[in-house]
Each structure stands twice: as C-alpha cells, then as structure tokens.
Specification:
Blueprint: E1 2-3, H1 10-17, E2 26-28, H2 35-39, E3 46-48, H3 55-64, E4 70-72, E5 78-79, H4 82-94, E6 101-110, E7 116-127, E8 133-135, E9 141-143, E10 148-157, H5 171-181, H6 188-200, H7 204-217, H8 222-238, H9 242-252, H10 260-272, H11 276-288, H12 305-317, H13 321-334, H14 339-354
Parallel strand pairs: 1-2, 2-3, 6-10
Antiparallel strand pairs: 4-7, 5-10, 6-7, 8-9
Length: 356
Amino acid sequence: MIVKNEEEVLRQCLDSVKDICDEIIIVDTGSTDKTKQIAGEYTDKVMDFKWIDDFSAARNFAFKQATSSYILWLDADDVLQKADQKKFKKLKEDLDESVDAVSMLYHIAFDECGNPTFSYRRNRLVKRDRNFKWIGPVHEYLEVYGNIISSDIAVTHRKRDKSNPNSANDRNLKIYEKRLERGEAFSPRDLFYYANELKDHSFYQKAIIYYREFLATRKGWVEDEIRACINMAACYRMLGNPEKEIEALVLSISYDVPRPEVSCRIGDLYKGRNLFRKAIIWYRLATEIETDDHQGFQQQSYATWYPHLQLCVCYWQAGEMELAEAHNQKAKYYRPHDSQVKYNERFFKEYKEKNS
C-alpha cells in the first residue's frame, strides 16, 4: 500500500487483511496525521518515500519491498468483506504457481441496502518474480500479462467522510496541469483521465475538448472510449444541451453494442420529452442486451431494476396497464423494498378497485 494522511480509513483496511496476508508493506508519502502510527500497529514494514507527483514511482517502490511469492495491492479506503476474506484464503490454498495475476471485482458504489451498483475488475494479485510495473504518474495502471485468471473475490471501496479535508482534493488535476505546463505529451490514457478530472471539478467545456481529443486518437481501450462518450454526455447535460447529450450517447454505440447505461440514458431523454413509445424501445434494450464479462465499469441498476421501473411509467402513459404492472413486478424482484415500487403497487391496486 502507498498512503498519505489515511488515519480515517487505514485501520478498517488493515483489519480486513491482517489475517490473510503473510506480510504487510506500507509506504508513506508524507503523512502529517497518525497514519504511520496506526500502520505500525500492524507491521514493522512502514517506510517513507519522498513524494514526487508520481503514483507509479511510489507503487513500484512499494512492490520492490515485497518478499512473498505474490503481491496483493490495496488503497487505504479499500476493505475485503468477511466472505471475500474466506474466498481469498481459499485462493491462496489452491493457486497454481503458473498463474501470473488474478483479477478481482472492485465495488465502488452501493445502494441503500449495501448492494454494489458500480463495479469493475482490476488485477489485484500478481506474481512477484514477474516484476510487473506500474505506469503513469497519475491514474496509474499495473501492466500485467501472461496467465491471468478471474476471481469472484471482491475488494470493496469504503467512501470517505466528505467533511474530512483529506477525503477529496484537486491533487490529481494539479499533477496533470503541471505536466501540461512542462510541455509533456499526453498519452491517450492521460487525455481520458485528465478529461475525467476536469469533469469531476465542473470544468465541463474543457472536459469535452479533452474527451474528443482522446477519442480522436483511436488508440484508447474500448471501455474507456465508451465511458468517454457517456461522461461527455453528462457534461452536456450539466451544460443544458440535451441535443449534444444524446449525440454523445449515440456515439458510444459506434464502439460496441449499447451498454445498458447508454440505453437507459437515451430512454430518459425521450421520457423527459413525453415520447414514451421511443423511450420504451431504449429501456427494453437495456433489459435485453447481453454484454460480455468485460473489464469496464458495470452499473447493475441500468440492467436490472431501473429500466423496468421506467418501463412501468412509460407503458402506463402509453395506455398499457398490464405491461406497466408487469414491469413494476420485475423491478420489485431486484428492489423489493423500493418506495417507488411500493407506491406503484398501491396505485395499481386502487385503480383496479375503482374500475372493477
């Protein structure tokens, strides 16, 4: 792990892995709080690394300290839940030495019941003697190749308290801007993640420029290209330009089959204009299309309860009550306690009683 001012979250992370790892290595990049003190309660391998605005440099330094056969990497606001700890122990017992890396799910957003709503895969466990390297000063990635297997183990991201001044900042944005000031050439990946930082800091017009520059390279990962279109659409939405929003969403389809999120967002635009029949086409597509188990972002709500709940509304507005009720029941399967689902059930019951 590399850390800086993580006293708020570090203990929960280390508690979740202390019994499954043979050694814990923590590299501190300049903490001014109790991070190092807390880390010292779990391991004697706490060391310093002078921060040079380069995440990969820090992570590669941390990897060099490892002595075990495989390396698991985490961030301080990650945890392994009890069930995933058990799966990890089983993986250690059964792992064949021919495996170079193991990808795991990364859950980063959740509904009110704690169910993951936003996930993707990351190569989390890697063979030490392959000497895989981290690449990129910011939004770094671990370059992995060889015999890679997929696991159902999940790493869970625990959000920080937004009232904490260390929970969010413009550090990454500043790193990118310093690189631009130095005249550094951005890779396609740099362009994509810089655009994301701009969007997250509400620089929507500038973000759109860099998303388009990224797409123009035609050298990005397809999942990033699709996400660039979705994020660009979100920028146009914030700028109050629905025509450009739908244009960006449709553009994503040129890279692969429509993602459920894209279909639902197009459906939302038509529903917002009371074009319910057109909205139905897109919401139905979100429920029917099958996508491979790709490595990109996956928001389960757009393929499960959300389109069914919208189809309930659209079919009602189109005068097809039976279909509306049927889709509300399908939404209930995924979210049995959802307030809108329950409201719809009461509405249908009262409507039938009045018209019986």
